[in-house]
Structures are given as structure tokens and as C-alpha cells.
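Q: Convert this sequence to C-alpha cells.
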Amino acid sequence: MSEMGPSSDVDGIDAVRMTWNVWPRSKVDASKCVVPVAASISPIRHSPDVPILPYLPLHCKSCASTLNPYSRVDFSAKIWICPFCFQRNHFPPHYSMISESNVPAELYPQYTTVEYSVGPTDPAAAASPPQPVFLFVLDICVIEEELEFVKSALRQAIGLLPDNAMVGFMSFGTQVHVNELGFADLSKVYVFRGTKEITKEQVLDQLGLAVGAHRGAGYPKGVQNGVVPGTISRFLLPASECEYTLNFLLDELQIDQWPLEPGNRQLRCTGVALSVAAGLLGACLPGTGARIIALVGGPCTEGPGMIVSKDLSEPVRSHKDLDKDGAPHFNKALKFYENLAKQLVSEGHVLDVFASALDQVGVAEMKVAVERTGGLVVLAESFGHSVFKDSFKRIFKDGEQSLGLSFNGTLEIICSKDIKIQGIIGPCTSLEKKGPSCSDTVIGQGNTTSWKMCGLDKSTCLTVFFDISPSERSTPPGTANQQLYLQFVTNYQNPEGQMRIRVTTVARRWAETSANSEELVEGFDQETAAVVMARLTSLKMEMEEEFDATRWLDRSLIRLCSRFGDYRKDNPSTFTLNPSFSLFPQFMFNLRRSQFVQVFNNSPDETAYFRMLLNRENITNSLVMIQPSLISYSFNSPPSPALLDVASIAADRILLLDAYFSIVIFHGTTIAQWRNMGYQNQSIHQAFAQLLQAPHEDAQIIINDRFPVPRLVVCDQHGSQARFLLAKLNPSATYNSAHEIAAGSDVIFTDDVSLQVFFEHLQRLAVQS
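A:
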């Protein structure tokens, strides 16, 4: 738990969590801390406590930071002093009424996060806020049954869209078909060949939008931007006007009719379809929040972005192929999606990918375009699977469950002068805005103090890495200025189309001296630290060749324990860890065994998917991905947390495992036998019926609150699907130790070490002189 005490909302009003809540004073001290100094922030997380202020923020004239509760105010002189650069600023005339008993909201000590509502000055623009735009891009190289599933999901989505949302529709197979929705009487389609790359100019030319090429530079506001009037409404219409046309189109739509030669995969030009979509939106709606929603049912086999050839004898790339440079199309496809990402980011548009197929579709290659535009990604086995259907519905749903999709965000970070920013891991792109607070070492999207988030929602989370580089002139330790400050300023367009600026200002302490590690220990947030280490490891596995993740994690953990543990040299039995650190070794043990580090039992698409979600979810959710939670249900006790250990399995228990991407309800053998005999249907066995029902109800609560919707697996002990649970448990009992096992529990067939053995090794290595 962070310093805020045991409140139910761990992230607080600021939604900022840090690996260290007391910061080391120098670069050397920071490197001795092993875990990097980093903050995890959720820029627009919904919190009812955040006040919304109907005026513009005040900025410091020197460093451009925003007025906040840490500013020192001289009420008689009407001056405020910036905590970042110590500049004295005069309040403007409309603040003349302020006094100690009459302060504006942004100076209240509890309002460290405030949101400013900045409406357009033009009344006409205020009357019609920008509408959300959805361009659906549908893969029709699928079997009949899959096409029916995805059509029914689309019909439902169109029904859920707000009336003013703008909608466009394209489909692709061997070729790309762009539907003109403006003619209800006659369906008109533009066809693009799927074999070669198409420039934005060629797209405009072929769609008859080329006159738009003459408009002035810069981002025009709103829709009237020099494109021939009326051309936009040929391809993008308000949902209320085109619902009938769209439903008619879906009824008529058939699977791709291109003849398929034996021994070949279907020809599918996903890359061309996405670049046509990007060109169309770029021409019609530059600088306006818009999403391309790609529904993909198989791998791209022709044109740019191709991940495998049409020849079925060539397998789709695996992790082994990527490691050994045996994936002939990978780098070319990656380059293509990097360029697509640049084009989308420059226009402020988002790419969402819904991949539903038993085989890979190329999410590993598309990852760069999804992540840099802040898009959503969902991986399912079929368009008929609840993982796809329920997740897809959530995008358009209003109310409590809505994702709060927002557009066109930018994030600016301002920090105290001894702090530099290395970069961000998460769904954003560097805006390459250099400043004195940019560090020379870069992690993720760096070399900037400002980032673009084309798409963001209330669960979007980013990890910022900091460098500590005190200058010679800095205040020496022990002087008055013990505080350090960070300010996160997010500009964005909310789901209702209003422009908002959210400002979060946080303060932390510098450590008094480097010798005293006690302060650092007290300020360590082990949950945040575990997630930050997981994100950093995933990034290194992608960026650094020959990077040995397990070895790097082990060495980091040994260094951390030998720096912060209590022990007598060379005596492992004396080793203890402060409670602030006590769970960290266990988190690292589970991270080493997780899907983020052990990639060989997953496809490159799955690994890319897991990493994208790890990088964009909050700390609590990301921790469940690393170390799943387990709840035990039995007759003689209420539901209670159980150890993530094979010893928790018992014949008369039901276990509920939440592994984030999947949820497993696991029945012990006795429970399964009773259920198969139908005891739950007899009135005398009400208690048993309730016991069976309880984990399902709890699972439903988790499912309702999560995006993407997790896969639900219901299984029995010794059944084939029990592997979903066993793979996540600590193998304290293996076939090597089978003689010590209690009756009714289980054995795991593995050569992995158990947590106990892992911890014994750690103690021995940490205390070595």
C-alpha cells in the first residue's frame, strides 16, 4: 500500500503510484536502489472527487507549470510563487478577490488534481461539439458462420451508437471495398487492389476527394476543412441517418468470392485496407478524434503488412523464428505499421484491432500502430466467442460500464529541477518536445516532455521513468527544500466532445542522506515496483537482442535484497525483509514464470497482446496478470483468499482463479462427483447448490468490470482443462516429492523450482560477502 493508508481506493484522487515515495538524492544512490524511480499514472481515471472548474488555468510565466496547492501565495501582494522554478507570478485582475478565507479550488490542499472545462469561444462550435467517429473495417475472408457472428455484433454496435456519432464502413478480402453510405437508393462501392502499397494521394484521387489536397496547413477545427462540401457525407454519416443503409449492407454482405487454389491460404490484404482507412479519415477529418475499428479473422497474406505467404506449406512465424531471423516478412511488415502509426498520430486517429481467429493474424506486427495511437486490442478464438462479443459491445455501451473513450489527448510533464524524464512505457507517442528536463538515457517513448495520446480512456495508464541528476548548485541535503514536485497536465476531448485540461500535481520527499536506507524502505511500493519491473523486462525483451530476462530479474532481486535486507554476512538463516519488501520476491518468482517472460508456450501475437495490456492497465490489474489471485470456497468456511500453491487444491473445495486474461472455476473431485449426481437439485442440499453458485457470481462481478472480457474456464480436478489452474500454481508438490503429499491434493509434473527453493537460493546469494 502506498503512503495514503488503507483507503479502499489505492490510487487516490491523483491516480499516481510510485516505486519509491521517498527519492534517493543522487544518481549513484538511485542506481543502488536497483528498482528504477518511476511513476505509474492514469491521466483521466474517473474519480468523483475531482472538481471541474469552469475557467482557464493560470500558468507560471517562466516554466509554464499550472497554479496548484503547493504554490506559495502572498495574499496581500496578490503574488504566487511557483514550486518548480521559484518564479514570482502576479495574479490576473479577475483573481483580485482572493484572500486567506477565499481561495480558488485549485489552491485547496485536497485538490491536487483538478479538471478545467475549456469550451470553445465561438457559440456555434459550442452548440455542436465534435462527434465521435467510427470507421469499421471488416475482414470477409472468413467462413460463413464467422461472418454471421461478426455481422450480428456489428448490428448490435450500430444500434448502441449515439445518434450523432459518425460512421463509415469498409470490407476487405483479396481486395478492399469502400462503401459509399450517402446514396441510400443504390449501394456504391470503390474497389482497391490488395497487392501493392497505396499512397494517401492515390486513395483520395480514387475516392474523388482529391480537391481536399489544396487546403491550408495546420489542423482545421471541425469538419469544414476545405474538402469539397458534401464529400465527407458520402463516406461518413451520422449513425441516425445511416442505420438503415448499414443494416441493409450487412444483410447483402457475403464472404470473399475470390477463388481459392488448393494448398493456398486465402488472399487477405489487411495492410492495404488499413492504409485506405487511414487515408480516408485523414482526408475527411484531420485532427478530429476518430477510430478505425478493424475486425480481422486471419493473417495478412498479400500486399504491405503481409505476415505469411499464401502457400500453406509456409508456417506462420513463431518466437523461435523471430529469434533466429527466420521470419522473412516480419521486419518489412513492422516498417509498414510504423509508417501507418506516424500517419495516424499526425491526424490524431486511433487504430483498434479485434482479432478473432484460431491462428495468428499479425497483432505482433500491428502492435506499434495500436500502441502509439492508444488503440484497444482484443484477441479471441472466434467472432462467436464471449471474449469478442462482450468486449466489442462494451466499446459502445453507455453508463456505468462504459470505457469512457476519449480523443486527441496530449500529456505534458513538469518536474523539479534535479529530475529528468527518461521516457514513458504505454499507449502514447513522443511529441519530440525537447527541454532541460529530458534525460540522455531513453526508456520507451523518450527525448521529450510532451506526448500524444490519440485515444485514451478512464483505465489508460502510463509508466514514466525518471533520472535523478542534481546540479552542483542544487540545495544541499539538510536544507529547507526537502520536497520534490511533479505535475502531469493532460489535454483531451471527453466522450461528450468537450475539451478538458486535467492537472495533477504531486509532492514527494528527498531522502535525507544516502547512508540512511530506512526512509527509502518505508517509502517503497512493492506492488508498483513489481509491475514496473515487468514492464521494463518486457520492453528489454523486445528491444535488446540476446537479453536473458530470467537472469536479469534474478540478479536485480539479489542486489535489492542484499541492499535492503537485514542479515549477518554469510549467514542465510538470519536473513529477514522489512514488510515493505516482503512480498516482492514472490512477485518476482511469479513474474519469471508468467507469460511475459516465458514466451515459448505462446505465439508472438499472444505475447504482443499480453504486453500491450500490461503496459496500459493500472497497477492493481497488472499485478493480477503477474500474480493471479486465488479464492477458496468450502462448506466449513466463508470464501477466503488461498495461497497460489498446489497445496490449496482439495477434493471438497472449489477454487476461483483470476489470472486476468482468464478466470478459472475449479471443482475438487468430491464436489464434482456430487454435482454430477445432481445433489444441488434436491431441496435438502440447498447449501451445496449455494456453494456451487457462489464462485460463478463472484466471477461475473470480475467479468463485468474488465476490458477485454476474460475467458471463463469451468473445470474439474484431473479434467483436461485443469491445466489452466495448475500452470499458475506454485509447484510445492511435484512428482519428485509425491511421497509427502496430503490426500486429496494434487501433484504438478514439472522441473520448475518451487517458491520455497527459490527463496532459499535468494537468501543464500543475498547474504554472500
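The two ends are 32 Å apart (CA to CA).
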